[in-house]
C-alpha cells in the first residue's frame, strides 16, 4: 500500500526550494512557528529550578499532571508517555492480552499502520484488520462486517491522513454502543482530540466516555516538545506502566516533556475554537481559487488538506512565487497524488495566523487565484 | 530469582526517615546533587533559543552529537536514544536477527534481566542465558562452557549490581577474541564506561574496539537528564533507527536530552579520574570502620557498594544519627541482604564530594566507626 511519510521525510532536493521559500517568508499562515529551543526555554522560564524531577514515573511532577489529564479526559487514571507510538501500541497490546486475541481493527491510514515501521506487528505480534477504504472514514457497517473477532477497534478523531475528517457524533455513539455489546474495546487515537471539541460541541470527557482507552498528544496543536497521555481505568493504566518500562519509555526524568506539555496545554487549550473557526474561514478562501480544493470541504478541526489539480513541480513554482509576492508562506512541502497529476499539503491553524496582517492574506489568495488560473 | 529494584522503588515507610535525613543533611558525600529542574535550566542557559529542534532523528542538533560520540567511542556511527533500556534491547534484537538465533548471554544481574520487566523476552522473544553466579563476574570459561550457540554476549563494565567490579583488561581481550572466533557478537553495556577508563588507563575507543556494539548513558556520572547512545557500524546503527521508531523512541524532539547530555558530557568527562580516586580513598575509609566492608575492596570506578554487618532497621538508625552529628549524608536508602542479617548501599563519587569540608568527612567517619562498633 501507499505509505505517506511524515512531513520531515518528504523533503526531496526539488522540494528544498519550496522549503526555503517557506522558511524565509516574512509570515507563515500555518502552525505556531518553527520548532526551536525557544519553545523549551519559554516553557521553563517561570518554573523554579528547585522543582524536583520525576523519578521513573513517580513523584509529584509527573503524578500531578497525570491526575489533571485524567480529570480533563474523564478517566480514572492517566499515564504520561514520551510518545504516542509507544502509548498506542501498548494500549492495543493490553486489550489483546485481555481478550487473548491478537487481532485489532483500524483505518488503513492509521498512524500505527503507516508511520511506525510496523512496531505493532514486529514487537507485539498483533495483526491489524484494515477497515474501510483508505479514502473514507470507518462506518458502523464496517465494524459490523468484521469477519473475525477483534480485541479492539481504534478510531482516530479526526482522521488525519484524509484531511482531518470526522464521523457524525451520533455515528460515533452507535459504533461505541455496538463495540460494547460485542465486547470489542474501543481505543481513541486522540492525537488531535482537543481540536475537534468545538465542532462536536462536547467536552473531552464526553467524547472519551465513548472509549475504553484514550491517547492524546501534546506536540500537535498544543505545540509542546513531545509527549503523550494514555488514559483509562486504573488497572489498564497500571499495566501500561509495566509496558512503558519494557519499551524503554520509563525514563528517570520525563519532566522536560511533562512540564512543557502542561505549560502549552494551559496556554492553548482555550484557543481551539479560534483555530477551528480560522480553519473554516481559510478553507473557504482556498476553495474559491481555481484548481484548488480542500478536504474536508468544510473543516471540522483546525486542519484540512489543500489539493491542487496540477503536478507537484509546477505547483512548487507557483507557491514560491505566491510566497515571494505576498510575503506569506503556506507550506514547505507538497505531497504528490494521482500518479503525479495533482498534489496536496496539510494545513493547520495555530497561533501564527493571527499575526499575519489581513491585507497580506488577501494578497496571498489573490496571487494564488491568479497564478493557479493562469496555468 | 532475587530481583533488586531501582533505588526509587525501594523506599518503604521505615526507610522514609533515612531518606529524609539524607535529603535534609547539610552536605551529601555522594553524587552530583538532587535531580531538580535546575539541571535542565543550567544546561540550556548558554544555548540560543534560535537553535533548531531535531526532527524525528534528523537535523544538526542530533546528528552533530551522534558524530561526536561515534568519534569518541571509535565507532563508525552512533544513534541517540531516549533510554538505554530501549537501546540495548534493540542492539540484542539486531544481532539475534542477523544470526537467526534468539539466544543471547549475559550476567544474572544484567539490567535487562532485573530492571526492564522482561522487555527483551516480552517484546523481542529473546531468551537470555545467564552466565556466571550472580555474585561474580563473567569469565572466559563461562563463555566457553556455553552449551548452545548464542547470537550475542553482553558484558557490563563495570558490573554495577556487584559493586562495580571489572575483569582484568587482559581477560576482556581474550573474551573478545574468543567471541570473534566463534561468531558471537559482543555488546558493551557501558552505562558507566567513562567511569572505568582511568582504572583501565585506556581511551573509550580502545575499550570499544573489543566490542561490536556499545551503549553509553548520560545520566549516571555524566549527570544529564536522560538519554543514551548506541554505537557500532553504520549498517547496525541504521537498523537501530528503524527499531527506535518501532519502540516509540523516535520522538519529534529529543533535544532536551541531547543538548543536556552534550553539556554535562563536556563538563564532566574530564573529571572521571578525580571521581575514581575519590572513590578509592573513601572506600578505604569505610573499610576501616567496624562492621563495614566495601565491594570491590578497592574500587575500579567512581562507585562501590558499602555493606554493613547488621540488620537494615538498626543501620538506618545508625546512619540517621551519623548524618545528624556530622552534617554529612551518605545515602537515602539501604538494601537488605543475607535474609535480613546485613544491608548495603551503593556509593558513587560525583561533584558533591569536593564540596564537603574535610573535617566534616572526618567527623562522619569517626561517628560511623564509633556507632557501628557500639552495636
UniProtKB/TrEMBL annotation, chains A, B:
Keyword Cell membrane in annotation: no
Key words, A-Z: Pyridoxal phosphate
Keyword Methyltransferase: no
UniProt-listed InterPro entries: ArAA_b-elim_lyase/Thr_aldolase, PyrdxlP-dep_Trfase, PyrdxlP-dep_Trfase_major, PyrdxlP-dep_Trfase_small
GO CC terms in record: cytosol
SUPFAM superfamilies the record matches: PLP-dependent transferases
Gene Ontology biological process terms in this record: glycine biosynthetic process; L-threonine catabolic process
Swiss-Prot/TrEMBL cofactor(s): pyridoxal 5'-phosphate
Pfam families (alphabetical): Beta_elim_lyase
Domain of life: Bacteria
Domain Aromatic amino acid beta-eliminating lyase/threonine aldolase: 51-307
MF terms in GO: L-allo-threonine aldolase activity
Family, as annotated: Belongs to the threonine aldolase family.
Protein name: Aromatic amino acid beta-eliminating lyase/threonine aldolase domain-containing protein
Amino acid at each position: 500500500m501507499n505509505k505517506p511519510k511524515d512531513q520531515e521525510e518528504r523533503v526531496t532536493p526539488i522540494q528544498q526550494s519550496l522549503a526555503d521559500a517557506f522558511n524565509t517568508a516574512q509570515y507563515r499562515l500555518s502552525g505556531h512557528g518553527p520548532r526551536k529551543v525557544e519553545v523549551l526555554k519559554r516553557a521553563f522560564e517561570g518554573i523554579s529550578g528547585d522543582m524536583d524531577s520525576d523519578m521513573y514515573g513517580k513523584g509529584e511532577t509527573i503524578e500531578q499532571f497525570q491526575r489533571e489529564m485524567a480529570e480533563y479526559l474523564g478517566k480514572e487514571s492517566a499515564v504520561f508517555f514520551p510518545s504516542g507510538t509507544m502509548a498506542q501500541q501498548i494500549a492495543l497490546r493490553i486489550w489483546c492480552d485481555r481478550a487473548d486475541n491478537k487481532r485489532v481493527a483500524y483505518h488503513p491510514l492509521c498512524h500505527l499502520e503507516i508511520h511506525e515501521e510496523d512496531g505493532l506487528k514486529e514487537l507485539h505480534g498483533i495483526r491489524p484488520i484494515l477497515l474501510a477504504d483508505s479514502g473514507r472514514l470507518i462506518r458502523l457497517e464496517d465494524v459490523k462486517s468484521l469477519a473475525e473477532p477483534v480485541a479492539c477497534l481504534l478510531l482516530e478523531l479526526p482522521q488525519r491522513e484524509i484531511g482531518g475528517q470526522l464521523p457524525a457524533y451520533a455515528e460515533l455513539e452507535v459504533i461505541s454502543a455496538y463495540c460494547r455489546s460485542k465486547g470489542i474495546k474501543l481505543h481513541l487515537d486522540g492525537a488531535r482530540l482537543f481540536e475537534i471539541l468545538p465542532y462536536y460541541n462536547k467536552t473531552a470527557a464526553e467524547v472519551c466516555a465513548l472509549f475504553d482507552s484514550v491517547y492524546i498528544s501534546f506536540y500537535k496543536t498544543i505545540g509542546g516538545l513531545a509527549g503523550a497521555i494514555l488514559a483509562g481505568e486504573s488497572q489498564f493504566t497500571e499495566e501500561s506502566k509495566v509496558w512503558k518500562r519494557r519499551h524503554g519509555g520509563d525514563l528517570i526524568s520525563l519532566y522536560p516533556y511533562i512540564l512543557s506539555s502542561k505549560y502549552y496545554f494551559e496556554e492553548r487549550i482555550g484557543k481551539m475554537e479560534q483555530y477551528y473557526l480560522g480553519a473554516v474561514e481559510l478553507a473557504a478562501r482556498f476553495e474559491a481559487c481555481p484548481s484548488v480544493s480542500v478536504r474536508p470541504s468544510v473543516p471540522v478541526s483546525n486542519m484540512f488538506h489543500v489539493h491542487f489539480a496540477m503536478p507537484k513541480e509546477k505547483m512548487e513554482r507557483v507557491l514560491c512565487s505566491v510566497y515571494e509576492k505576498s510575503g506569506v508562506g503556506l507550506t514547505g512541502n507538497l505531497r504528490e497524488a494521482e500518479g503525479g497529476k495533482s498534489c496536496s499539503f496539510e494545513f493547520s491553524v495555530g497561533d501564527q495566523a493571527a499575526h499575519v496582517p489581513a491585507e497580506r492574506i488577501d494578497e496571498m489568495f489573490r496571487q494564488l487565484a491568479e497564478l493557479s488560473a493562469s496555468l
